């Protein structure tokens, strides 16, 4: 482990000892979280804040038996983040507990999914009540939870985005959105950005443009990728490009109202339209902020111009809000609103159910009718009573506890403090994001901006876990840490 990282961990702990951070984690008290600078050394383990919750005693399978079952009966793909895989037993709000009773502050949120806290009491109560009333029935029958949820969700979306299709995962949602776009446009070609992640199903694999998720098999018929307008790693970018409290350290000569990087990336987008797809296209998929690719933000105005170009070709514009939706970005409830755009289709999952399998596609009446004319769409579990009751409770908690406002205040504070660490430490190449969707890109040095070696990133993960902090990672180099 590099000395620079040890110093950074120490500084990170001191920066996050502010009372503002306690707003993100309600059970944290200012006095307990603050540690004296004079007492904290490079090898001092930071003290965990207090927690008034006591987890149940673990009484399930022995750890060795869990490993054996994992190796023989579960997916052989790489799933363990740590040298010793973490066996989690229970969760409470911002905390997770392992089988030995160790407590962790969850900055990963189950890949940006636990939107109101693990086992939130209101969501739990609603789930238990619905569990005793009705679990499942066919979508061919009416039941109050689906109509109550549809009314709540539609009220949060602008006109004409008012028709809701309920499914079970982000991949399913994007599958359906692809079908809608093609049915409505009578065209085939769909464009997505390089570095995008829109799912791992056979259909959505064509949209996903992150190498490890691709296979040596034909997939994605009619899907084309175009250059990602990444203002940190891309060929163009400057220190005024992002809609974020923190900008890149790259310099530019742009006027405040004119972004040359945006113009250059739009030219690349036009080139894709002119060379790689048919004259008429089905649509364009974009995440408001790329999640799996490492919280990549585009130049301001890029998506607005890209949407205009797509519509000129007869295509529909799809906003993938699987990670960015439900107030996470702070300033707005939906990520597309931060770009000043109105999509034709919006897909959402993850935070919609706080971890319960649930997703949705929201579109216009016109596009919904186009699909209905072409195919009878049916989903056995989509919109089931349990999911809809939980979804309604999640929306109520976000509003009642002002979690969107909390994302704005706490996220802005954290971004600014992380930017101070970037300015101080050579291995922090970039800090980016909005609200509580934050990425920190680690590099060998600021001059080369070469990614920090994988083994050193692994050590960062191990060190954070040993201190009781769980973070994520992503990006095309699979080495960015995502404190979300």
Automatic annotation (TrEMBL):
Kindly list the cofactors needed: pyridoxal 5'-phosphate
Name the chemical reaction catalysed here. Answer: L-ornithine + pyruvate = 5-amino-2-oxopentanoate + L-alanine; N(omega),N(omega)-dimethyl-L-arginine + oxaloacetate = 5-(3,3-dimethylguanidino)-2-oxopentanoate + L-aspartate; N(omega),N(omega)-dimethyl-L-arginine + 2-oxobutanoate = 5-(3,3-dimethylguanidino)-2-oxopentanoate + (2S)-2-aminobutanoate; N(omega),N(omega)-dimethyl-L-arginine + glyoxylate = 5-(3,3-dimethylguanidino)-2-oxopentanoate + glycine
Report if keyword Transferase is assigned. Answer: yes
Source organism superkingdom: Eukaryota
Alphabetized, the UniProt keywords read: Acetylation, Aminotransferase, Mitochondrion, Pyridoxal phosphate, Transferase, Transit peptide
Q: Where in the cell is it found?
A: Mitochondrion
The answer to whether keyword Transit peptide applies is yes
Which SUPFAM superfamilies does this chain map to? PLP-dependent transferases
Which GO terms label this protein's molecular function in UniProt?
Answer: (R)-3-amino-2-methylpropionate-pyruvate transaminase activity; alanine-glyoxylate transaminase activity; beta-alanine:pyruvate transaminase activity; pyridoxal phosphate binding
Would you tell me the Gene Ontology cellular component terms?
A: mitochondrion
Q: Which PANTHER family match?
A: ALANINE--GLYOXYLATE AMINOTRANSFERASE 2, MITOCHONDRIAL (PTHR45688:SF3), PTHR45688
Q: How does it assemble?
A: Homotetramer.
Q: Which family does it belong to?
A: Belongs to the class-III pyridoxal-phosphate-dependent aminotransferase family.
Q: What is the name attached to this protein's record? A: Alanine--glyoxylate aminotransferase 2, mitochondrial
């Amino acid at each position: 482990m590099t000395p620079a990282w040890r110093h950074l961990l120490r500084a990170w702990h001191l920066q996050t000892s502010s009372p503002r951070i306690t707003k993100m984690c309600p059970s944290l008290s200012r006095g307990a979280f603050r540690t004296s600078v004079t007492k904290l050394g490079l090898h001092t383990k930071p003290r965990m804040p207090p927690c008034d919750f006591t987890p149940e005693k673990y009484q399930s399978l022995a750890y060795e038996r869990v490993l054996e079952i994992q190796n023989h009966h579960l997916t052989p793909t790489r799933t363990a983040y740590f040298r010793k895989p973490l066996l989690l037993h229970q969760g409470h709000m911002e905390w997770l507990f392992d089988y030995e009773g160790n407590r962790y502050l969850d900055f990963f949120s189950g890949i940006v999914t636990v939107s109101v806290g693990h086992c939130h009491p209101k969501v739990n109560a609603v789930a238990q009540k619905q569990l005793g009333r009705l679990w499942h029935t066919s979508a061919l029958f009416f039941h109050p939870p689906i109509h109550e949820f549809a009314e709540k969700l539609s009220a949060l979306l602008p006109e004409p985005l008012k028709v809701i299709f309920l499914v079970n995962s982000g991949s399913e949602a994007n599958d359906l959105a692809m079908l809608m776009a093609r049915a409505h446009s009578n065209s085939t070609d769909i464009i997505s950005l390089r570095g995008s992640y829109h799912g791992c199903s056979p259909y959505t694999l064509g949209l996903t443009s992150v190498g490890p998720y691709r296979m040596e098999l034909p997939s994605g018929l009619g899907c084309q990728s175009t250059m990602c307008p990444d203002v940190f790693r891309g060929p163009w970018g400057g220190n005024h490009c992002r809609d974020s409290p923190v900008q890149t350290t790259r310099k530019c000569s742009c006027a405040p109202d004119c972004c040359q990087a945006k113009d250059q990336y739009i030219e690349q987008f036009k080139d894709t339209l002119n060379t790689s797809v048919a004259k008429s296209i089905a649509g364009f998929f974009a995440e408001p902020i790329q999640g799996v690719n490492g919280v990549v933000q585009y130049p301001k105005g890029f998506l607005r111009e890209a949407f205009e170009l797509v519509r000129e070709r007869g295509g529909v514009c799809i906003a993938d809000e699987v990670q960015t939706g439900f107030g996470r970005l702070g300033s707005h409830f939906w990520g597309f609103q931060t770009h000043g755009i109105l999509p034709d289709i919006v897909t959402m999952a993850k935070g919609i159910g706080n971890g319960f399998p649930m997703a949705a596609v929201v579109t216009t009446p016109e596009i919904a009718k186009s699909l209905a004319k072409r195919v009878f769409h049916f989903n056995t579990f989509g919109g089931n009573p349990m999911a809809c009751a939980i979804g309604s409770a999640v929306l109520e908690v976000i509003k009642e506890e002002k979690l969107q406002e909390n994302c704005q205040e706490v996220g802005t504070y954290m971004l600014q403090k992380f930017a101070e660490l970037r300015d101080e430490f050579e291995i922090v190449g970039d800090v980016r994001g909005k609200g509580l969707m934050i990425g920190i890109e680690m590099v060998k040095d600021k001059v080369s901006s070469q990614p920090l070696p994988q083994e050193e990133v692994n050590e960062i993960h191990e060190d954070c876990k040993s201190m009781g902090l769980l973070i994520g990672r992503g990006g095309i180099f699979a080495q960015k840490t995502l404190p979300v």
